[in-house]
Amino acid sequence: MIATTGMPSGTRPEPPRPGHRTPDVSGQQRTAAERTVRTLRRRRIVNRIMVGVMYAAALLAIIPLLLILTHLVREGASSLSIAFFTQPPAPVGEPGGGMANAIVGTLILVATASAIGLPVGIGAGLYLAERKETKLALITRFLSDVLNGLPSIVMGIFAWQFIVRPMGSFSAISAGVALGAMMIPLVTRSTEEMIRLVPASLREAALALGYSRARTSLAIVLRTALPGIVTGALVAVARIAGETAPLLFTAFGSQFWSLALDRPIDALPLRIFYYATSPYPEWRALAWAGALVLIGIVLVISLGARYVTGARRGFGAD
Amino acid sequence: MRARSLALAAAILVGAIACGGSQDTQGDAGQEGGGTDLTGAGATFPYPLYSRWFSDYAKQTGVRINYGSLGSGAGIRQVSEETVDFGATDSPMTEKELAAAKGGKLLHIPMVAGAVVVAYNLPELTQPLRLSGELVADIFLGEIVRWDDPRIAAINPGVQLPSRDILVVHRTDGSGTTFVFTDYLTSISQAWANGPGRGKQVRWPTGLGGKGNEGVAAQVQQMPGAIGYTEVAFAGQTGLQVAVIRNQARNYVSPSVEHVQAAAEGVLDQLPPDTDFRVSIVNAPGDSAYPIAALTWILLYQEQKDPARGARLVEFLRWALTEGGDQASALEYAPLPSRIAERVLERLDSVQSAR
Amino acid sequence: MSEQSHTAAFDGSERQLTDRIYQWLITGFALCIPILLVIISLEIGRAGWPTFREQGAWFLFQSTWDPNNGEYGVLPAIFGTIVSSLLALLLATPLALGVAVFLSEFAPPWLRTPVAFLVDLLAAIPSVIYGLWGIYFLLPLLREYVAPAIRGIPLVGDLPIFAGPAYGNSLLAAVLILTIMILPYISAVSREVLLAVPRSQREAALALGATRWETIRDAVVPYAKSGIIGGVILGLGRAIGETMAVTMLIGNVAQIRASLFAPAYTMAALIANEFNEATGDHLSALMAVGAALFVITIIVNAIARWLVWRVSRGNAA
User: Fold this and answer.
1) ∠ at Cα C135 (C133, C136), nearest 5°?
2) CATH fold of B116-259, please?
């Protein structure tokens, strides 16, 4: 860009080269040299300052995170107990109780969502990786991005209109559909990328050995890319495990144990939301504990995902 | 290898869920057995009481009732759409709303009477604040904006009012409590009647919104200088300061169970025999009547589509009306006077199964 | 050998059948995505249609949201959505760029990984947890310290944008939490495009005597400009659709006020709060709001993706 569009802004006289004695010249040139030295000093100071500003920006960006994590631990840890993990909530005013049903509910919702999101995502990812130039592939890739950017509340009202309303009741399955639909673009994209990373030679070798295309894709290519695909799936799971908005009108929440897919179900983020906005100190304490557990789950899954691939994106990729 | 074990784990998980699922849905098919769900939604006003009732009832009979404390508006909507077995509201349904109910005729079954209190957060005050209806209306209209306004000071002689902004809190959701509160304000303030008027949801000239009675209580609790309206049990459970309100007889009364019962008795005795129980008890006459009192109703269809669920629901309501009184008083709700309770029980007899 | 006979037996039509089934299967799965989007559009459009039919697009410009009286003006919610998102963008972009530049240019290798990890972690925190933290730490901070402090500044404290009682729940609170929430997205995309700038650009600038800062300012960033803008617009898309943290902090009042301390509403928060109790017209209006949100985020995200794609495509230098 420098070469083609001319010099960057600001005058930039060349600094004196080392070892080269400035010839004795007129006062004009001496002044010019002094100006250069002054400008250079100023530029160096500006450089120092900006480096400092960058460090400050990084620090400023991390401070909220550290604050949040600290507060979560401080407020939440004291309310964690065995009861928290094994008991459903107690009615208002009674001590004890926990969020066990919400934790189980989240697990069920994640499983249901995965049952929808994983097959579609992996299948679509395979398609996009293998048939990349067809019209369907281009459309699907674009629409997958569109789906990814859809606000989760819009997904929630869609699931309500599409499933809850005709079915006549809130249900785990409607929430599972909303969450599963949100998983699809994430799984699709990561699957596609992972499949693309498998060297073509592997595929060609399999085909040369007489494997059918189906078997090549599934038994050879998919299997090779599996760690990356699992990572993508885990990242998607971590993302939807923390979603609340789509659950407001689909899962509805419940104070009891519920395992049925066609009845309302509780979930951790939903319970946290209801308790966080409540006036009862016991409930608020539970909300903090729930938040700590939720962030723990999300972090463990995200970290686990990173660990599986071991790859980090972007750094040193010059 | 890994794929295989993943598939196995998934299969086991799905199998476990399916088994657990079928266990719960058995009850839904109408067969007998403990653990049958009933689902209800609606008013947050009676929620502290209902949640206690549901818990006790589940211990006694094993019937689990799942209640979404979403506000009267939501309760009315859900029961009209038949997405729940029963609704709950403190705002009586309008004719239009009743006509829109999909399952036929909806009955209003009053359960208890409760008080809507004016709660505030002024840590500097040690005695309950005195307020009149007109002052409350003016505060919520945004006409009075500081706590040390002379009009408030005038009826609170000797009280050192702090020099703070008044932070008004109201409801964001369609609320029977809002209906009761605005019903009261409409009846005592011309400016309010001409302005926001009465309704489950009105255009508030000023202030912040909270969701449900709990949300309003939470907001008032967190903001020094806040004022809001909420059901008495919420104020009690969260330690909020509650104002004493001037009633029609110009006495300053607190929202105690006796004062609410006084408000209820006067009005309910006048009910005609074929009443549908949709009656307002705000600004009731009587020396000790609390002016912002209200009935709270359970809504259910007269013709129940699922006979087993319908029977369970009616059984629960009978239990609550006959045996739930002690719990109610303990939580500051006024049980219905026995004459009225009898008539309500008779109305329950009219619930039949649709088949 | 069994392997040979196996593949021999697997020849011809049997293999073709398996292949064909496989093709259909993955094509079918791929088709699910467009079909899903069509269904979503249809369902939401259908449910919101009555409102559009009755009021036309005017309902987007009416400023009174009063369901009790049948008025469904979405302007206050749109105002809140736009203002909160734009202000959050204004605050987050310099910060995110600073972080991205820091990570791609200045950070020593030992610092790079942990800092990048921590910044990315911001994106993993669920929205409801941001809301929870916001209620119990951000709001009291604003209410008890920030608002009185700003009010106390002569001249500035009397400006209309600081007027009104300080509830804590306010447009400002929403802006601040959104800033934190979108920062990692802008930063991640910027980081990637900055790293994609070829070495030659940097080396050319340095050879010409530029300081490191000048290199970044004049050689690297302009090259990555459209990608960075793409990342910024991506952050905008996220801010527009954000629901939980916003509804817990913004006050949920459908009004248009000049003050940052005044409670406000966004489209997503409006839907979240009122959906469960809406019937008939009210429900249709909320669905229409959802449809509007749907369309807006599609447009914004499409623009963002196109900008980022342009950078990655034009990277042949």
Assistant:
1) 70
2) D-Maltodextrin-Binding Protein; domain 2 (3.40.190)
Overall average pLDDT of the B228-242 stretch: 90
Third-level CATH fold of C57-312: MetI-like fold (1.10.3720)
Tokens at residue B162, please? Answer: 């702090």
pLDDT in tens, B244-300: 999 988 999 999 999 998 888 878 777 888 888 888 889 988 889 999 999 999 999
- H or E element that contains B51: helix B47-61
Q: Rounded to whole angstroms, how far apart are CA atoms C9 and B344?
A: 80
Distance CA C122, CA C117 (A): 9
Whether B4 has a pLDDT exceeding 70, the answer reads no
The answer to whether B337 and B321 are in contact (CB under 8 A) is no
Tell me the C-alpha distance between C125 and C120, whole Å. Answer: 9
Q: Which residues contact C31 (CB under 8 A, 6 or more apart)?
A: A136, A140
Mean pLDDT of C217-226: 86
CATH superfamily of A82-309: MetI-like (1.10.3720.10)
Indicate if the pLDDT at residue A93 is higher than 80: no
Using a CB–CB cut-off of 8 Å, the residues of B that contact C are 41, 68, 70-71, 73-78, 80-81, 100, 145, 165-167, 172-174, 199-204, 207-209, 211, 219, 222-223, 225
Distance from CA of C74 to the nearest CA of A (A): 16
Across the interface, whether the CB atoms of B17 and A164 are under 8 A apart is answered no
H or E element at residue B109: strand B106-120
**Span C151-155, mean pLDDT?**
85
Which chains would you list as touching A if contact means 3+ CB atom pairs under 8 Å? B, C
SS3 B227: strand
pTM, to two decimals:
0.82
Q: Which two tokens stand for residue B74?
A: 């939501």
| DSSP assignment string, C126-155 | -HHHHHHHIIIIIHHIIIIIIHHHHHHSTT
> Are A62 and C22 within 8 A, CB to CB?
no
Has residue B14 got a pLDDT over 80?
no
Q: Indicate the domain borders of chain B.
A: 2-114+294-354, 116-259
* Count of pairs with CB atoms under 8 A, one residue in A, one in C: 300
DSSP element (H, E) containing B117:
strand B106-120
Closest CA to B164 of B219, B228, B240, B225: B225
Q: What is the DSSP string of A165-176?
A: HHHTS--HHHHH
On the question of pLDDT at B35 being above 60, the answer is no
Q: Give the model confidence (pLDDT) of C184-209 as tens digits.
A: 999 998 998 888 888 898 899 989 88
Spatial neighbors of A45 by CB under 8 A, at least 6 apart, are none
The string of pLDDT tens digits covering residues C241-292 is: 999 999 999 988 899 999 999 999 999 999 998 888 777 888 999 999 999 9
Inter-chain residue contact A260 with B13, CB threshold 8 Å: no
∠ CA B69-B75-B79, rounded to 5° = 135
Interface membership of C257 toward B (CB under 8 Å) = no
C-alpha count within 13 angstroms, C-beta hemisphere, residue C93: 17
Domain B2-114+294-354: CATH superfamily, name plus number: Periplasmic binding protein-like II (3.40.190.10)
- Please report residues of B whose CB lies closer than 8 A to that of C166: 165
DSSP string covering A149-196:
HS-HHHHHHHHIIIIIHHHTS--HHHHHHHHHHHHHHHHHHHHHHHHH
Q: Which of A14-18, B18-22, C310-314 has the highest mean pLDDT?
A: C310-314
CA distance C174 to A87: 34
A2 vs A37, residue with greater confidence: A37
Cα of A219 to nearest chain C Cα, Å: 12
Identify any residues that bridge with B86 across adjacent strands, giving them in sequence order.
B40
